[in-house]
Specification:
- The chain is an alpha+beta fold.
- The chain has a single domain, classed as Intergrase catalytic core (hpI Integrase, Chain A, Orthogonal Bundle), CATH 1.10.443.10.
- Helix content is 43%, strand content 13%.
- β2 and β3 form a beta hairpin.
- α2 (22-31) runs antiparallel to α4.
- It is globular.
């Protein structure tokens, strides 16, 4: 069962207050992409002119391998989405902010061309992102659970 409009609006306001997570959460709402997919998106996966977003990989975190990119298996069908204009506007603004941060790091910036990365360009931990989103949801005192699979 989906969230009511009121709960969705309250969660969106909570997300907006968390500036770093906001763009990824907007894209999650707009596309339904999984957490690992969101964290693996590179700028080459998104056509800023058409809004087409191609899903070709996922970021996973395991005890054995740590954080790594996982390509889609041969049996998985490719997926793509058209990102709505309102969400694309947030992503474009995010890109400008990200470029400014990269300039501050200079040669120390870890350029993986990720759409969503830490300020130094490195990967986010999928587990930590999931925990932060769950905590935000709990702060809403909602009986609706959130899954960031």
């Amino acid at each position: 069962m989906g969230w009511s409009c009121a709960i969705s609006c309250r969660f969106a306001a909570c997300c907006r207050a968390r500036e770093k997570e906001y763009p990824s959460l907007v894209l999650a709402f707009a596309t339904g992409c999984r957490r690992g997919e969101l964290l693996a998106f590179q700028w080459s996966d998104l056509d800023l002119q058409t809004g087409r977003l191609n899903v070709s990989k996922s970021l996973e975190q395991t005890k054995t391998y740590g954080i790594r990119l996982k390509e889609r298996t041969k049996g998985e069908k490719p997926r793509s989405f058209i990102v709505p204009g309102w969400a694309l506007d947030v992503i474009v603004s995010h890109r400008t902010q990200q470029q400014s941060e990269a300039a501050l790091f200079g040669s120390d910036y870890r350029d993986h061309a990720l759409i969503f990365c830490q300020p130094d360009g490195s990967y986010y931990s999928p587990d930590k992102v999931g925990t932060r989103v769950s905590r935000m949801a709990k702060r809403l005192a909602s009986t609706t659970s959130i899954c960031t699979h």
